[in-house]
Amino acid sequence: SVLPKIITIDGPAGAGKTTVARMLAQKLKYAILESGSIYRTFTWLLLSKKRELLPLRNEAKILEVLKEEIPKLDIKADSQGLKVSYQGTDLTQELREPEVEAHVSEVAALPSVRKLANEILQRIAENRPIVAEGRDMGSVVFPKTKAKFFLTADPRIRAERRYLEWQAKGLVASKEEVLSKIKERDHKDSSRTEAPLTVPEGAIVIDTTTLSPEEVVNRILEALKSSHP
Ligand code: CDP
Ligand code: CDP
Question: What is the ipTM of this complex?
Answer without folding.
Answer: 0.96
